[in-house]
Amino acid sequence: MELKTEDFYIWYDEASNTTHFQGKLRLNNTEEYEPINRLLEKASSDKPLVIWNLKQLEFLNSSGINVLYKFVLTARKNNLQMRVLGSEGMNWQKKSLPNMKKFLPTIELIIE
Prior knowledge:
By secondary structure, the chain is of the alpha/beta class. It has 4 helices and 6 strands, in the order βββαβαβααβ.
């Protein structure tokens, strides 16, 4: 499973059970993020642990952040465990990723 444009590349690696995000996500609204949401849902189906690697995601606008937060809320409802890998070098990640703990206190955030 993958989504690829000039600006971003998102793919699911089944061997590592990890969804990778790369590039800049600047879509206009949550409707434009729907294909990404579907990819995340497919990648998490029948999996006890959801892993996102955001280390190479340089930018994510507020609509995209909301999509990720909503997914985290769904993970809590469905008793999924989550691990999110981020980068200290990405300011938006240092600011936004820790807020995921408000929605899913058990989420494992690894920002390095």
